[in-house]
Amino acid sequence: MNNRNVSSPFTRPVWAEISRARLLHNFSMLQQLASPDIRLAAVVKANAYGHGATLCAPWLAAAGAEWLGVTSVEEGVAVRAVCATQRILVMSGLWQGEAEAVLEHCLTPVVWEPFHLDLLARAARQAKLPPQALPVHLEIDTGMSRQGAAHGGLLEELLRRLREEPDSPLLIEGVLTHFHSPDELDSPVTAAQIAAFATAVDTIAAAGLAPALLHAGNSTSLLTGHGLDALRALAARHHAQLMLRPGLALYGYTPQAGGSVSEREEQSPRLKAEGYGLQPAHSHSLRGGASALEGFQPVLSLKSRIVSLRTIAAGATAGYNGTFRAARSTRLALLPIGYADGLSRLLSGRGHVLVRGHRAPIAGRISMDQTILDVSGIPEAAIGDEAVLLGEQGNDRITAEDLAALCQTIPWEILTSIAARVPRVAVD
Ligand SMILES: *Cc1c(COP(=O)(O)O)cnc(C)c1O
């Protein structure tokens, strides 16, 4: 009944196993797709998509990751503590009081608001940095309307400021944008975003700036190759390096397997029933054929153990509000994991958990800290049995896509919802 294979000292039998071998396998597949000319920023934001950034970032660094992408300065500081030499891109800007940490921990911020430049320039001058000593990456809004400077307005303002301060401590090392629908292969929107990006980069070059890096595109962009030729041509024209920023695929999920859900698909039960993500009709567009999407391996498994068993009579109920009512004598198993651990309450009465290689239905409502399973179909189930909520057991597996489909969300949210109180444990 002890928690085998685990090194960290936790006692409650709820844990997430993180496979180093699988993460590095996925990273190596992405490196091959990027080779030889594309650089990668391995995205480890949101605690490495719930996998544990202080576990995953050093593994990726040791495997050759040159750039690591985080969301905030706080995340950047945490990753810097375990990765001394890698470049760390802070992708969601910065806030007051954070510029000093950017300098102290050698983070590379994405900037677009004029106040970002002010905060950084002031901190850099206080630290007596020479001109162009602090690299920043300028984001261009090409249609996501989330962050970034739109061409014309804010971009002109930023360029004017940089022109008026020729001895600015800031260096525009990179220019980036973000695609909002990289999974819609037949749609012209990514091409339009790339065209808008090219116009902005031309404007920046005309202002006398020569960014060394141009970056755009996520896992889907790299796996499908959609838009890469245009991005390559843009980078070549500006004597810059092209970089992509994959996240989800590092953790073993790809668009074909259900990694991307466009709004259109979310709204359409028919498309949803056909399986969301890239449709087979699109496979001719996939880089290297559909095989580019195969072979990625889920890195995280969420596990618990049966801590109590009981048999209830026909007619008895289980859980809050008695939503589960036994049709016959029913054997129930208790797991000490609940929605406070990130197991969505939407799985109540709908999800399954693997026990002894079989699927046990979740009986009734998931509680904050506990979940009841119907193990009537698994007579050998015993206290201490491992229960797999996410991952493999026997010949079966439950993926983040399976849970996302049941919860009407996306694998990104399933993975990042796993609570901080669940210990992340390296397994190989
Ligand atoms: C999260 C994020 C990515 C990675 O996206 P995936 O779809 O997980 O590969 C890339 N770029 C930016 C700006 C992001 O915020």
Automatic annotation (TrEMBL):
Location of the active site: K45, Y320
Annotated PROSITE patterns: ALANINE_RACEMASE
Amino-acid positions noted as binding substrate in the UniProt annotation, renumbered to this chain: R146, M368
Residues spanning the signal sequence: none
Source superkingdom: Bacteria
Enzyme class: isomerase
GO biological processes: D-alanine biosynthetic process
Pfam families per the UniProt record, alphabetical: Ala_racemase_C, Ala_racemase_N
Function: Catalyzes the interconversion of L-alanine and D-alanine. May also act on other amino acids.
Family note: Belongs to the alanine racemase family.
HAMAP family from the UniProt entry: Ala_racemase (MF_01201)
Protein name (Swiss-Prot/TrEMBL): Alanine racemase
Origin species: Acidobacterium capsulatum (strain ATCC 51196 / DSM 11244 / BCRC 80197 / JCM 7670 / NBRC 15755 / NCIMB 13165 / 161)
High-level lineage: Bacteria, Pseudomonadati, Acidobacteriota, Terriglobia, Terriglobales
